[in-house]
């Protein structure tokens, strides 16, 4: 629950910050003011919400590789220092050629749990990183499958798509929060002036939070869907049996608290505890390992 709570708080914080900026620019400086004598201008509101909703996601996307390196302590392999590093670079290079993308940066981060992630705004300038725990606990065949899974994320453009979906979802949240805020201000608090009252601002921020929680479930649903697609790519590049073996090798780590930084958990191959269904499962970034393995067993690609 801590992982889910921190993820939601991070996203909600972005929404609230942009909501306050939205209000300050429109009320103090008159920029993008969506209120007029007839109440809300819905077209202007939709444009402004889409603009502000996308800004945070786009900025995060362009900074994703830098943030990933800093938050995980990833060391990029510029010149391989041993046979293991050389094998990692060679394997990623071969898989990248097979799917027709540019050679990603390859890195290692210090984490006792077996894990890996891929990120970057451009599929030809991505980063693929594995944990020290993954290298030490998995067989070469399993590591190859994990790398293929991450290359799948890159080739499928998952980082870009996830950022765009988050931006659009944020735009919808801001849009409907302000419509509800306007309704409360006008219908309940009987504000008849051309300018919005305090009820509009308070209600809008409260609804940003509530709708933002609900909207996060949509983003996490897509995150779970893309894990299945990346698993299939891993099966194509490394072999289905290797991919299933790699997922089974993650079981001990799945029962432990996740040590990945919050900003990277949606991009990792494993996401900590995830057994059983609950309301919290709607906000998980990854399906259960059992579900992923069952899906791969049906895969014949």
UniProtKB/TrEMBL annotation:
Please state every residue range assigned to the domain named Peptidase M48.
84-298
Any Gene Ontology biological process: proteolysis
GO terms for CC?
Answer: plasma membrane
Query: Is Glycoprotein there in the keyword field?
Result: no
- Which Gene3D superfamilies did the record assign? Metalloproteases ('zincins'), catalytic domain
Q: Which residues cross the membrane?
A: 42-63, 159-180, 200-223
From the Swiss-Prot or TrEMBL record, what is one GO molecular function term? zinc ion binding
Q: What is this protein called?
A: Protease HtpX
Coding gene?
htpX
């Amino acid at each position: 629950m801590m992982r889910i709570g921190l993820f939601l708080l991070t996203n909600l914080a972005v929404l609230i910050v942009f909501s306050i900026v939205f209000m300050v620019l429109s009320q103090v400086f008159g920029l993008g003011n969506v209120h007029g004598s007839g109440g809300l201008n819905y077209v202007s509101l939709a444009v402004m919400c889409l603009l502000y909703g996308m800004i945070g996601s786009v900025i995060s996307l362009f900074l994703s590789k830098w943030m990933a390196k800093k938050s995980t302590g990833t060391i990029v392999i510029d010149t391989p220092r041993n046979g293991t590093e050389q094998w990692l670079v060679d394997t990623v290079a071969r898989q990248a050629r097979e799917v027709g993308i540019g050679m990603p940066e390859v890195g290692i981060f210090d984490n006792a749990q077996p894990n890996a992630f891929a990120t970057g705004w451009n599929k030809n300038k991505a980063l693929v990183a594995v944990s020290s725990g993954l290298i030490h606990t998995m067989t070469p065949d399993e590591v190859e499958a994990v790398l293929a899974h991450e290359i799948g994320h890159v080739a499928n453009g998952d980082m870009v798509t996830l950022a765009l979906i988050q931006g659009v979802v944020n735009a919808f949240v801001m849009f409907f929060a302000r419509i509800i805020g306007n309704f409360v201000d006008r219908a309940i608090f009987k504000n008849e002036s051309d300018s919005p009252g305090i009820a509009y601002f308070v209600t809008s921020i409260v609804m940003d939070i509530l709708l933002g929680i609900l909207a996060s479930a949509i983003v996490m649903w897509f995150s779970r869907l893309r894990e299945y697609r990346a698993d299939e790519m891993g099966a194509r590049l490394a072999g289905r049996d290797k991919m299933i073996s790699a997922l089974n090798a993650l079981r001990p780590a799945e029962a432990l608290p996740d040590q990945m930084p919050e900003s990277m958990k949606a991009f990792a191959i494993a996401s900590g505890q995830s057994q059983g269904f609950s309301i919290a499962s709607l906000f998980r970034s990854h399906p259960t390992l059992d579900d992923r393995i069952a899906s791969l067993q049906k895969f014949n690609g």
